[in-house]
Amino acid sequence: MDGARSAFGDVAAATERAVARAGSGKLAMAFAKFYPDGLPAFLDRLRAEGQGEAVDAWLGGDTGRSVPAAVIAACLPEAVTARLADDLSLPPGRVPVSLAEFLPAAVAKVSEGGRLKPQPNFSTQIR
Length: 127
Known about the structure:
Helix content is 69%, strand content 3%. It is mainly alpha-helical. It has a single domain, classed as YidB-like (Arc Repressor Mutant, subunit A).
């Protein structure tokens, strides 16, 4: 059992390093590339799932509010999860966990005055 825990810990640490290397800017850009209507639409979906206080906190620069990985997973279409996993070099099952940890800082970084800065849209968004 200790070997399994150690292996899981190694995978989790590698995931954290991969997302940290990618940086919060890449995380926001990944949403712009793959989530239908980008990061603003994903934040609206989180609000619809009852996470509005956390989203508003992130937009205001407070990264201490979290959203459970299960809620994030429920807001991500399977195809988007797969594309995010590939883009961020993560196993698909780790995407919601990593987003739960790193999305607050990513949103805060691309926000100003309580609102998202203008975000790009790409033709690669999943429809």
